[in-house]
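Treating backbone geometry as a discrete language has practical consequences that deserve illustration. The sequence in question and its structure tokens are set out directly beneath this paragraph.
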Amino acid sequence: KEAGEALQVREEQYRAIFDGTADGLVLWDERLNVVDVNTQFLQMYGFTREELLGRSYPAHLPADYVREREQFIRRGLAGERIESRSIAIRRDGSTFDIEVRLLPIRLRGRPHALAIVRDISERTHAERALRDSEERYRLLFETESDAIVLVDVETLRLIDANPAAEALWGYSRPELLSITAADLSAEADESRAAIQSHQGRV
């Protein structure tokens, strides 16, 4: 009786930890069937526990999508630890960005693979927005008719220059990036003081 109660306590502790994590967790056996899945995973993908337990990937998912993920799980079952980014498909067919860690484990002496899934949609959106902003900045910077140089305030070294700056000073971009803002000014001390006070121009 005591052994049974101790086992029940351990199972309850396991379930509390398994369901309490912020990441989605799904445990696969060597037949590529789901052995266990936590609440966060179900919420993330929109499935019920009954729809997943004891089964492989749902039949409505694209064949290429399923094939790629089954290969991924087989690598974990073979003992490989893997980290990957991917696009996942929810039950309703919508997609979202995920980061996955796959860990090989042994359960009751048999190989299993535990997938730890994190929804990174917000992070991916922010990264994409940053890239788009940088591309727009670069386009404006390169096409601006006025000469623009970016200067390291501490060293006064030029860290970027647009084509108009090359034309104005007669230097190539690599040449401009090898000198300081003071080198471009007839009043080096005044330029240095103005730049380092963040209110002047070359």
About this structure: The longest helix spans residues 121-143. Strands lie at 24-28, 34-37, 82-89, 95-107, 110-119, 149-151, 158-161.
